[in-house]
Description:
The protein is an alpha+beta fold. It has 13 helices and 17 strands. It has helices at about 5-60, 65-75, 110-115, 155-205, 220-255, 275-280, 295-310, 350-385, 390-425, 435-455, 470-490, 535-540, 545-555, and strands at about 80-85, 90-95, 120-125, 130-140, 145-155, 260-265, 270-275, 315-320, 325-335, 340-350, 435, 455-465, 465-470, 495-500, 505-510, 560-565, 570-579.
Amino acid sequence: MKKRDSLLFSLPLLATVLIAAFAAFLYWQIAKFEEGYLFDAKNNIAQEAQLAAAVITPMLQNNDFAQIKQFCDSVKGHTLRLTLIDDTGKVVADTKENSGIFDNHKDRSEVKKALEGEAASTIRYSSSLNQKMIYHAMPVDCNGKRYVLRSAIPTAEVGRIIDISRLNMFWALLFGAEIVLFLTIYIVKAVRKPLINLQQSVEDIAAGNLDKVIEIPPDGIIRDLAIDIAKMTEQLKNQLTQVTFERNEREALFNTMSEGVLLFKSDGSLIRTNNAAAELLKFDRNKSFHLNRCHIPELVEEAQKTIKSEESFEKEFFFDRNGQNISLWIKGSILYKNGEKRLLLTVTDLTNLRKLESFRADFIANVSHEIKTPLTCISGAAEALEETNNPENRAKLTAMLKKHTERLNNLVKDILNLARLEKSPRKESTSEKIVLNSVVDNVIDIETDHAKECGFELKVADNLPLTVSGDADLLEQALINLVENALRYSNGKNITLSVTQEGANAILTVKDDGIGIALEHHDRLFERFYRVDKSRSRELGGTGLGLAIVKHIALIHNGKAEIISNPDAGAEFRIILPL
């Protein structure tokens, strides 16, 4: 039995014990009452016997038995019975019956003791009176002869009182048993059963089932408790919902941070991290991770120093990962929780920033170099022009000035165009709808004469009337740059333009049949100032920015640019645009 049930049923059990104790006490009191009553009755009849002996003794001395019988007859009608017995056991006189009808009383125990000279009392059943009697016999010596004077009273009165007391005790016990039964039934129905239901509900709630419905009893002492627990459960559910929402919100913010955050124990084992840290250090968040496995020895050394000295650090770490140079700015500090030392690391990826800085430096260097070359030629031609009077030399120097001035002008123009394209946001949509076959037709019209001068033939293969959203002038510029690029560097004879469809994309293609481009140049071909053959490119007057402009125009239209080429197999440049 559970402790709860022991407590609940202790009350009816206690009531049962009390009733049983009360019944035992009553029984003991009845026994004591009977014992005291009989004792008093014996004393009373002994006194009455003494009084009767005082009256009868003179009569015995005179042998006046008639008067003795007359005295006994005078006592009739009272509960007291007097009997005079001689030494032979014969009844001489009796208050109840004719003395001649009685048996010899010499064998009676009280008579025997009285004949021996000792007064005696006893309680026994009287066969002559058919009832239980209290007897007291005393010796009466007279004229040298011993008589026995016996007094008796019936015990019926005390028996009646005791029977009434026992009956009352029975009814009291029955009433007490009914109270205990009622109390037990009430505890089972109104207390124990609702408590069991309430306990089961609370256990379900404690197990996490906050949607568990609390059963409210219609009445009883448990009703208010059940109502309060139901209210508490609803409040707990609301608070847990709020806490869960705030936790998920913090977790979402934590995991969407671009900076990595890692929390380690003092032994280097990971406690908590976010997605950015897992991505930067390349480990699986769902598996255990140790600081020693970060593949950055300098970081491990700094972390160990910080754990020992508790001094924070900020440092940039450089390392190589699969041939790529990685730069991470990492801050480390010590935290305490419940007296336990922990290491907090925040990681910022500076790789792209360092690439941009390197790219900016390279760009400035390339621009400076590209500008310096024509400026040097212009400066030298101007000086030479001042010093010569030869008309032929003057014509050559003037042509040189014009050529490099034009080259410098084209370079500045391409730089400005590229800067403008980089500042332009990528267009999700535009009000201008462009039919791509008309863009190709315009480019053919613009570049046909120049192609003939260079010994090329411009062709159109597939020219589907596909529609995209964007800027027609920019797309024409991109195709013109690709055509000009093929005219300068391909060493071929034919250039083919086409508009085709692949799935949900339109493909603008400029293909030549020239010398092609080796595979190792493909990844960097659309970078600024990148040239496959630098010396030849400068001789032909290229700025090194044409393909970079093509790439940015494709990006502005939410597309991309790519190349398909192999040495001696021509080159195919593709601009992929979403329809």
